[in-house]
Here is the input.
Amino acid sequence: MPFPVTEISCDVQQQEKLLRAWQQQYSQLSGGCFAGSVSSLTLPGLKLFRESMSRAVFQAGALPSSKLAFGVPLKGRGRSLLCGETAGHDLLLFSGSMGFEFLSPDDFEFYGVEIDCTALSDSRAARLADTLQQSLHHHARGKRVIGLSPAAFSRLSQWLRLALAVSAVEKSAANSRVMLGQLLDMLGNTEQTEDKSAKRAYWQAVSAIRRWICHAASGDEAFDCPLSVAELSLRLGVSRRTLQTACKEITGLSPLQYLRCLRLGQVRRLLLSAACPVTEAATRLGFWHLSWFARDYCALFGELPSATLARVKANRSTFPQ
Here is the structure.
């Protein structure tokens, strides 16, 4: 019988790998040491999980087309946004051909459901999953945030809590079918609330900044690393006022603070892959004053960059690939 399994991380890049099918990249946006975990229960074609993270994180990812993924945020010190749509006590739909971008706040806790339609050998379970998928997409109407009544939100969150609290569940197609049926009972009559896409332009600006920095970190010569709001405005073709408003509205940070978090996150990603020395990683992302860089890095991640690289090298010597 499978038991719920809990995996713990102390690094945002380690956390992004815990949901293995999600092909995610995380960028930490608030300062301090990171602590996270994922607890999951896996049945044939169905996975239930709880993710918790201590720091605000910008997530970007995608799921295979065969998967349906959704969930509810249970806790957070601030608001969540999925593809620019504000999320409260709502159902968040992560699957879709366009991928997703998600901003989660400090002290975040999320309960999720991942359904692999191709792995459901039971024909009745497959039909239930298909009906659930059609129902969610119908009610979403092209959005990613589906409004739930307080009663529906309470039922779903309580159901997910209880499912992940059991000591053992028989790993059978029958149990997958039962759980899918219960989910359909709870979610078959969801209703879309008011239009939450008024801030889509702001979200697109924030997303464009993240993508630019990712390209710059990869060494793409077409994407240099902007170090000022003026540069950023010029590169993206967006006014400085729009960038200022967008970053503050979406992330709670100024454009320079948001830009610094993304750049530091990409440096950390390079160090964790042991792709280059600290100085090279820092200068690639435009950090030329190394003492200031080390100070900012430590403020965001709770350790010096040299400590990150040393830990990675020590782990590799202890556990050679």
The domain at 200-318 is CATH 1.10.10.60 (Arc Repressor Mutant, subunit A). The first strand starts at residue 5 and ends at 9. The chain is about 45% helix and 20% strand. Residues 123-140 form the longest helix (18 residues).
